[in-house]
TrEMBL record:
GO terms for molecular function: lipid binding; proton-transporting ATP synthase activity, rotational mechanism. This is ATP synthase subunit c. Keywords: ATP synthesis, Cell membrane, CF(0), Hydrogen ion transport, Ion transport, Lipid-binding, Membrane, Transmembrane, Transmembrane helix, Transport. It comes from Microbacterium kyungheense. HAMAP family: ATP_synth_c_bact (MF_01396). The record marks E63 as: Reversibly protonated during proton transport.
């Protein structure tokens, strides 16, 4: 087993771990967005429709981070 083989195996593992770490941020972000929307609806029930629309927009932007993470893993990891 030479140094090149070991380095190639480590790089493959790093790409997998990197995407796993990149997926944690959007998961936390979506949880915060949904939690704050529920809190807002509890405080102002008449704004539920408007807050729900803003929640979906926030989730879409937050999930874009996950797509960037998986694209980065494919670009740099494979």
């Amino acid at each position: 087993m030479d140094a090149t083989t070991v380095l190639a195996e480590v790089q493959g593992s790093i790409a997998t771990v990197g995407y796993g770490l990149a997926a944690i941020g959007p998961a936390i972000g979506v949880g915060i967005v949904v939690g704050k929307t529920i809190e807002g609806v509890a405080r102002q029930p008449e704004l539920a429709g408007r807050l729900q629309v803003l929640m979906w927009i926030g989730i879409a932007f937050t999930e874009a981070l996950a797509f960037i993470g998986i694209a980065t893993a494919f670009i740099f990891g494979y």
